[in-house]
Specification:
Low-confidence stretches: none
Largest sheet: 9 strands, mixed
CATH class of the largest domain: Alpha Beta
Order of helices and strands: EHEHEEHEHEHEHHHHEEEEEEEHHEH
Distance between the termini: 45 Å
CATH architecture of the largest domain: 2-Layer Sandwich
Number of helices: 12
Structural class: alpha/beta
Number of domains: 2
Number of strands: 15
Strand content: 15-25%
């Protein structure tokens, strides 16, 4: 089996998950890491036994690098992805794929004419509870889905923002809790619910208003084409990082995600359907531990010559939801129609 070379751009907090996934795979080799901070780039290269560069453009067009992992600040994703796609590389970008819908669309347009593929990291779709929920919806075994809710109560303190100058700013992070922390839960809600017809939401800065430009708290009511109503609440203003909570009510039962365990409530009885693996896994449990699964699947699709299923079009859907919440919050009391959103 031939070996596919990889490079990681950005050596911050999320990069080690990507590096260790690459190093654990047969048929994959981490060739290089890139970071504008020379010391951080050099340390990552030493840790992972590869070369380092401080200018990512040095990696453009290199024939020994097939896949680029974008682990950079949000505002850099779009331009970098377009450059590497135009050079014929495959690109796997961390969420959000861009800081706005129009930038994300440029990425997808570049992928459409590239020899390379564009993949977006929504690792929570690979969590076993997420897979079981989606299978239940698609099979109809519990009847029609009626409504659902997602709750994210996490903590991001002042130091989290002050230690990284790009965080907490519209121009570089693209938003706050919505686009950085709760985007995974919003992605799951739209993956479960399907096409969205309208969104009404609001954002506030409840605790960190002296520290950040963006929101630390948000809520929304999402109406889907199939008449399912989704409610969402997310905040970075809690004192701890609690596990994400999901509830999906069907005609014949209810699925509940609590403390990373999925339960079925039916006929007055609660049954445990799945629980977290007892073995150690990469990542923090409260935001999902399936990076390794997604990265391996992306590589398998590339090696097999198949289209990866979480592509730019899928990544754009979550950004559209976030944009809908931001926009409806600006025009308080009004719903934001998805048809209008797609014209922006």
């Amino acid at each position: 089996m031939s070996t596919i070379g990889a490079a990681i751009i950005g050596c911050g907090a999320i990069a080690p998950l990507h590096a260790r996934a690459i190093l654990s795979m047969e048929g994959a080799r981490l060739v290089a890491v890139a970071d504008s901070d020379p010391e951080r780039a050099a340390q990552a290269a030493q840790d992972y036994g590869c070369e380092s560069v401080t200018d990512y453009k040095q990696l453009l067009g290199r024939t020994d690098i097939g896949i680029i992992h974008l682990c950079t600040p949000h505002h850099l994703h779009a331009a970098m992805a377009v450059e590497f796609l135009q050079a014929g590389h495959h690109v796997l970008t961390e969420k959000p794929m861009a800081i706005d819908v129009s930038s994300a669309q440029r990425m997808q347009e570049a992928a459409a004419v590239s020899k390379g593929q564009l993949g977006v990291v929504f690792q929570n779709r690979y969590n076993e509870p997420s897979i079981r929920i989606k299978e239940t919806i698609d099979s109809g075994i519990l009847g029609q889905l009626i409504c659902m809710k997602g709750i994210v109560t996490w903590n991001r303190n002042e130091a989290y923002y002050t230690e990284s100058s790009w965080r907490g700013k519209w121009a570089t992070e693209g938003g706050g809790v919505l686009i950085n922390q709760t985007i995974h839960t919003l992605d799951l809600l739209q993956w479960f619910g399907g096409e969205i017809t309208s969104i009404k939401g609001s954002v506030t800065t409840d605790v960190l208003n002296e520290v950040i430009e963006v929101e630390d708290t948000a809520h929304a009511c999402i109406l889907f084409k199939n008449k399912v109503r989704g409610l969402f609440y997310g905040t970075n203003a809690y004192s701890v990082n609690s596990p994400v909570e999901l509830e999906l009510i069907f005609e014949l039962g209810t699925l509940l995600l609590r403390r990373d365990c999925l339960y079925l409530w039916k006929d007055g009885h609660e049954t445990l359907l799945c629980e977290p693996l007892s073995t150690a896994v990469e990542g923090k449990s409260y935001w999902g531990t399936s990076h390794n699964l997604l990265i391996r699947d992306f590589y398998k699709h590339i090696i097999d010559g198949r289209e990866f299923w979480i592509d730019g079009n899928e990544g754009i859907k979550a950004l559209e939801v976030i944009t809908g919440i931001y926009t409806s919050s600006e025009v308080s009391g009004k719903k934001w129609a998805m048809d209008s959103l797609k014209l922006t």
